[in-house]
Amino acid sequence: MRAVDIIQKKRDGIPLNEAEINTLIQNFVRNLIPDYQMSAFLMACYFKPLSFQETVHLTKAMMQSGKILHLSFLPVPTVDKHSTGGVGDKLSLTLVPIVASYNIAVPMISGRALAHTGGTLDKLEAIPGFQVNLSLSQFKNFLKKSHMAMMGQTPEIAPADKKLYALRDVTATVPTLALICASIMSKKLAEGSESLVFDVKFGSGAFMKNLKEACELARWLVQIAKAFNRKSVALVTNMNEPVGSMVGNSLEIIESIEILKGRGPKDLIYLTLHLAAHMLLLTGRAQTKAEGIALAKEAIESGKALTKFKTLVQQQGGNPHIIDTYSLLPKARFQKEFQAPQNGYLCQINTETIGMAACLLGAGRETMEDSIDPAVGFQFHKKVGSPLQKGDSILTIYYNNEKKLSEVWKLLKMAFTIKSSKPKKMSIIAKIIE
Amino acid sequence: MRAVDIIQKKRDGIPLNEAEINTLIQNFVRNLIPDYQMSAFLMACYFKPLSFQETVHLTKAMMQSGKILHLSFLPVPTVDKHSTGGVGDKLSLTLVPIVASYNIAVPMISGRALAHTGGTLDKLEAIPGFQVNLSLSQFKNFLKKSHMAMMGQTPEIAPADKKLYALRDVTATVPTLALICASIMSKKLAEGSESLVFDVKFGSGAFMKNLKEACELARWLVQIAKAFNRKSVALVTNMNEPVGSMVGNSLEIIESIEILKGRGPKDLIYLTLHLAAHMLLLTGRAQTKAEGIALAKEAIESGKALTKFKTLVQQQGGNPHIIDTYSLLPKARFQKEFQAPQNGYLCQINTETIGMAACLLGAGRETMEDSIDPAVGFQFHKKVGSPLQKGDSILTIYYNNEKKLSEVWKLLKMAFTIKSSKPKKMSIIAKIIE
Question: What is the ipTM score, two decimals?
């Protein structure tokens, strides 16, 4: 079947079979189907959404476009966590050492900051010396030795996804449920983990702006995992304010270490414990959520998780002394308080705007070619629901480039809604989909 | 505005303004917008059709992507005819000399055979020596000298259309009203004719399978012409059987000359006189349709039109002796009768299948790279409504390649529906849209 016939079939809403989807993806990866045909196909998928079954076929074809890791050589269970991306979302940094404390391997292939969202790899690279560009054999070796490995996307894993994503990004075909699912799942399945915890974020700082869309994505992810015989659960979580207090790469490393030291902001502790509990549940290390939470707490309180984190930093070439001496991390030259312009309650934070402001400071990147300034970011002193007196510092800006400050200031001024009545506080975890 | 933002706007059904459409087309022609973005845009246009106003902008941008002919140097009115394509449609060959007999210039840029439809250029090239690859200055010179010029698409006229069409062809985005209109009109407007007669065909042998679609296309063409201050009319005509008796390049040249000699099949005479009448009406040479028809008849009966045709053939390097000696045209080595398998009435001809059978013989081409055999084709002895006795010849096959015959035979067997009751004869001209 010619590519144009497959495009036409999709355009007319006729379901594609596994062979057709395979042909499309295999030939695309081999450059036998040109980008211009694939982008027409992707736009057809926007208007005639792929069914669940078609999405499973697509996920499989994309997964099989590259290497598939087999982790059965590990004598321990495996679990990974995937977040759909947010602002101040540093949970991978706390979850990997906590869960790995319990003889569970966490094979984690992460992404970089893009648009208003941060990226785990950029955070890790704020640690002097930390290497995220591992080979697959290094990745496996680390998993064997320490049960932890955190690396960047490699060209060997699901190359179809990289090629497809680049095309979607410039053809207005990113926001398509089936394509989002296939992109996430092809990589996660190829990574070889037996079980997966999804942190599907919704709200102003997430890609999914409302709860309904996020729940739909969560359901699809869990169902696709099931179709491939993986255990999974999805937590649909609130991204209407940054997670924790810190936004920015060095700052988030510090905050993650604080959590592992038994300190840190409440919301981040809460989410860490719950996500860890679900990872422990899926792997059978905990029988109930309460037990999972207790185990996660115990890993922190005993110092085991912090020791694991030190091992992780050392094994990937990072300077472990940063754990005790934060001043060894990149530090911004300047800081400035952003103060409340009036009395009242902090009612809303446009978290995407916060992410964009952080990006402007240099904490993120607009295009994949931009470089990152690990030192810059924000430290929040107030959260949604906090009472404010005019002049109170809402956040501290850490910055290096004075020229960017006025633009960042403008964005911050738009980001906060202050009202006289106290807002209803939303729970962090809105829904759990199993 | 970035290309991706324009694609997204169209995807979301937000009307594009003139500047946005201009940017898109201009940058596409300059290769600043890659094919993969344009094809996503085209697919978005399939699902979120361009409005009439957007189509006018697109037509203008495509027209302005190349040279625009100005024919005001001609001291006579100008008119062109455009057909949406059919089987046995040789009307350009008769109309050009008839209309040019009345001191009217007919600047005609035509196409080639594609899929099941024939092409005027391929028909002209059946005449030994005839050159259709003219430069624009030759084209203008011929118009000045004889008021006639028939040439192929040049890269200077509406290059955006050529690039866009190639992309639409392989991305399942051809059948889109607005894109069809912009493709036709950008070329016809750039060609510089003051007035345009459209022959919009519908039925089994046309691209528009039903009357409703054809009428919609006809209305859009006439309205776009109006938006650019061109006089126009559209005749919506029946393509449920081949026009005239001949299908094939040499054969259609012969049939056209027969018409100019005052002979030939009735339906072809009828359509020739009516289309010519509308061309004479638009240019003001006739005041009523009846007068137009009388003038067209007079051009044939007086021999003026035939003389004009001879001039046309000579000026473009063709051998004028073919007019009196048909055997100078390429002639097929073999012929075979296709006989009625039963008694009854010829009720339906699947004209697309006839076109495909002619294409298989070598009269047309499946892809633009195929070469044409000018000698081959069909001569019909029966039309829809003809009574048939078993064994009557429905048509004569003229062929050179004996190997193709069995496949052609199979198609022909599928093409005819014979029933015991006489079918209602449809009129050739179904609708006139002014």
Answer: 0.86
